[in-house]
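Anyone opening a protein record will find just a pair of labelled lines. With that in mind, the following record should read easily:
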Amino acid sequence: MSPENAFETHRPRLFGLSYRLLGSRSDAEDVVQDTWLRWQQADPRGIRDPEAWLVTAATRLGIDRLRAARVQRERYTGPWLPEPAEIDASPSPEHSAEIAEQVSLAFLAVLERLGPEERAAFLLKEAFDYDYAQIAPLLGRSEASCRQMVHRARERVQAGRPRFEVAPEHHRRLLERFMHAASRGDQAAVAALLREDARLVSDGGGKAVAALRPLLGAARIARLFWAAYRRPDPAIAWRIGTVNGEAAILRYHDGALTAVMVAVSDGERISELFTVANPDKLGAAVTPANGGASSG
């Protein structure tokens, strides 16, 4: 197999790892490109396992980029949320099923709690099924150290994940009800669909209207949608689509996507809402709105 073909064979895996590690499609693409440049410069005669070589290079490049990104994100305007990898206004059930649960925006937001090496070790173990003997040399750590990192990371991730597994169709129906209530400015209906301690996090990056701090409590979140409804704009339309294969609310203005919202729920009520409105994060394979939208 030629070096080019070997790299292309592993490209999807490299992108999947880089995206989970960085929470940014654009940064992940840069890491894959940098890995390709290193691959071109390497002597193939010294590479016995191309996949291990490529994953090691991508992981180390990703960790370095994540360290730099952490500094930049501290200066970010308002909350920073992961960048969607895929936004689909008219998804098919078969295509949505192809997207693993681990790439949901809510899951990526939880991963932000982890340090760069801790995040890499956790993902290699949990998402890519590497054993500690493989992870240790990749990170330049002992197997015992990697085991401890993964254990701590698993505890922190589990603490931030929903307690209940919800069937996708139940979650989608709940999101549809929320979308219709929010687009009508129905304060009581919105509040009824939220847990009392619900949290809304919105990412505008200083380039779109968004709350600069997380909004806490069902009543406060419901008032936000009620206030928005009091300033009606006929150019705004809402619809249900998917973000990273997960049901999401897509918001359009004059046919252009302006925000995506995903939720965490128990199937009955919503506990968390994540809205990405920064236009720099909404360019990933977006299909136009055409029908099925709810005005508001």
In short: The radius of gyration is 20 Å.
